């Protein structure tokens, strides 16, 4: 984040050069970075694992309920309440609230010692549902106040930033395991690609903050303004998910995955979509980038909160 902000001030030409490299409104550098970051995570996509939903569907159902009803509704309500008169900021929060996480939540679930099989199943299902529901949900929530966005550009963003790595990830897993074997795929290929993914994640953060650094630093008042509904939204959604998982009688390992996935956002697609719709330096880019700014510390805090609640006997053992 710091490197990106510094580059935005001392090498402004770099941001303009990166921004000028577009194809039909889609940023090519960001597209490459996002692909390299998301492709390894989507190697976890196992369509056959979805068959296991019938064994214990309750955690999955609760997660989908939070992802596609609670989180979008709460985020949209707070956005309209706190950000009246700032249409692009409203859209930015809706883009964040309507995009359930499919990548970083795998890390949070591992750190929280949750049920990783459930994590894989739910993130796989989320990846599919984003392809189907993201554009319609965003269109519906932004249409409540007649906010105009380019629906076609939104759909293209979903297809480019999720569809392509999803398909290639699934095909890679299928054909490489057939040719080289599962041991080679898990022991050689995935670790190698994982290192590329980490570098791509850092590069993505640098690129995004260098592209949007100027608008962030020039509008500290708007950074504070958009942070209020963002943080309040996290608190409300996390609280609802904690209550629902306890009420449903889930055990810790299933409950913490449900809370983590149900409370997190797919900030990559939100930022990329905001830039595609409104461009660099836009208020929408500022809002989604602030979502990224708060996502990591909030999710890390939730990992430790979950462990603390587990020790206090909040969920079933």
Walk me through the structure:
With 317 residues, the chain is an all-alpha fold. The chain has one domain (2-309): Na+/H+ antiporter like fold, CATH 1.20.1530. Helix content is 79%, strand content 1%. The chain has 13 helices and two strands, in the order H-H-E-E-H-H-H-H-H-H-H-H-H-H-H. It has a two-stranded antiparallel sheet. Helix 4 (58-82) runs antiparallel to helix 10. It is globular. 46% of the residues are buried. The mean pLDDT is 83.
SSE arrangement:
Blueprint: H1 2-10, H2 12-20, E1 22-23, E2 26-27, H3 28-42, H4 58-82, H5 87-97, H6 105-111, H7 116-143, H8 151-180, H9 182-218, H10 220-247, H11 252-263, H12 267-278, H13 283-311
Antiparallel strand pairs: 1-2
Q: Which parts are unreliable, with pLDDT below 50 for 5 consecutive residues or more?
A: none
Q: How many whole angstroms does the radius of gyration measure?
A: 19 Å
CATH class: Mainly Alpha
Q: How many individual helices?
A: 13
How would you describe this structure in keywords?
single chain, 317 residues, mainly alpha, Na+/H+ antiporter like fold, two-stranded antiparallel sheet, 2 strands, 1% strand, globular
Task: Provide a compact summary of the structure.
This protein has helices spanning 2-10, 12-20, 28-42, 58-82, 87-97, 105-111, 116-143, 151-180, 182-218, 220-247, 252-263, 267-278, 283-311, and strands at 22-23, 26-27.
């Amino acid at each position: 984040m710091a490197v990106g902000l510094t580059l935005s001030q001392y090498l402004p030409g770099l941001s303009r050069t990166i921004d000028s490299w577009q194809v039909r409104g889609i940023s090519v550098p960001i597209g490459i970075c996002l692909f390299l970051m998301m492709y390894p995570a989507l190697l976890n996509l196992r369509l056959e694992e979805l068959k296991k939903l019938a064994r214990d569907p309750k955690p999955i159902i609760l997660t989908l309920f939070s992802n596609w009803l609670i989180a979008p509704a709460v985020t949209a309500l707070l956005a309209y309440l706190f950000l009246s008169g700032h249409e692009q900021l409203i859209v930015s929060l809706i883009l964040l609230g309507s995009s359930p996480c499919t990548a970083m939540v795998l890390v949070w679930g591992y750190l929280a010692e949750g049920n990783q099989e459930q994590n894989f199943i739910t993130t796989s299902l989320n990846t599919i549902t984003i392809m189907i529901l993201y554009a319609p949900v965003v269109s519906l929530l932004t249409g409540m106040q007649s906010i105009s966005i380019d629906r076609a550009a939104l759909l293209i963003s979903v297809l480019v930033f999720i569809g392509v790595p999803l398909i290639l990830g699934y095909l890679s897993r299928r054909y490489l395991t057939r040719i080289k074997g599962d041991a080679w795929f898990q022991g050689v290929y995935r670790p190698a690609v994982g290192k590329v993914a980490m570098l791509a994640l850092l590069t993505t953060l640098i690129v995004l903050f260098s592209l949007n650094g100027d608008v962030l630093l020039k509008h500290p008042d708007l950074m504070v303004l958009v942070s209020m509904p963002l943080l309040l939204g996290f608190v409300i959604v996390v609280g609802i998910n904690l209550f629902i998982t306890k009420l449903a009688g889930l055990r810790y390992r299933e409950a913490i995955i449900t809370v983590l996935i149900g409370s997190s956002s797919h900030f990559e697609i939100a930022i990329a979509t905001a830039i595609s719709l409104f461009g660099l330096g836009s208020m929408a880019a500022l809002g989604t980038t602030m979502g990224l700014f708060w996502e990591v510390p909030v999710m890390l805090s939730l990992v430790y909160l979950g462990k603390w609640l587990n020790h206090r006997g909040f969920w079933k053992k």
